[in-house]
Amino acid sequence: MYFTECHTPLVGTLTLLSDGSELCGCCFSNGRHVSKDMEGELIRRDDLAVLQEARAWLDRYFEGLHPDPSELPLKDQGTAFQKLVRSAMLEIPYGEAVTYSDIAHSIEAKTGRRQSPRAVGGAVSRNIYGVIVPCHRVVGSNGSLTGFGGGIDKKIALLEFEGAMKPSFKRPKKGMALTGIPNSVRMGRGAAYAFSDLTPEDMHEILEAHDSSFAQAFVVADTASGCF
What we know:
The chain is an alpha/beta fold. The chain has two domains: 2-71; 80-224, Arc Repressor Mutant, subunit A. The protein has helices at residues 33-37, 49-62, 80-90, 100-111, 117-125, 152-162, 200-209, 212-224, and strands spanning 2-8, 12-18, 23-28, 43-44, 98-99, 138-139, 185-187, 191-193. The strands form three sheets. Strands 3-2-1-4 form a four-stranded mixed β-sheet, covered by helices on one side. Strand 1 (2-8) and strand 2 (12-18) form a beta hairpin. Helix 3 packs across helix 4. The radius of gyration is 17 Å and the shape is globular. The two termini are 32 Å apart.
C-alpha cells in the first residue's frame, strides 16, 4: 500500500492511501483506519499519479472550489451495505447536512427493503474516505454531531467551512449510560448494549469509542437483529 500526506489548514494532516491505481483511503492523522484497516507495509510515494490527483482534489476543496468526488478513482471496497451508504453520502450536496434516518430512507427507496438508522451509523463510521466521501455531513436526527473519525472539532470545522453548520446542531452528551438489561447483547470489554434502547446517535458514539474489531462485531450483531 502506498501513501502520501496532505497538510490542510482546517483539519490538519490527511493520509492518502493507494494500491497503485485507485485511491484506497483518506484518513485523519488521529483516525483509526490507517493502522487498523490497512494490511501490509505502507510505502511513501509522493510521486504516484493517483495520490497526486487526490492531493490536488483536496487543495481545491479547501480553496472552496467544490470539486466532485467522481473525479477521483475511489476503490470500490467494503460490504454491499457500506457501498450503498457511501453512495448515499456522495449524493449529499455541498453545504447541506442529512440525518442517519434520511440515508436509511433513501436506501429503502432504492432497495425496497426497510433499513435501520443504526445500521447506517455503523456503515458511516467505517467510511475510510474522510472529507472526500462527506460523512461529516451526516448528523443525528436531534442535531447531535456525534461520531466522526477525525474528532468532533474537525466535523464542526468542516460543516462551518461549507456553511452547513446550524444553531440546532450540538455536541453529543457525555457519560452515556450503558447497562446490561434484558434483550441486550454483551460483547467486548464487558459492556452490554440494548439495541432496542439505543438511538442512532448512541450507537454511533459506541462505535467511535471502541476499536474497529469491536465496531465490526457490534454491526454484525445489529445485522443479526434484523437491522439490514
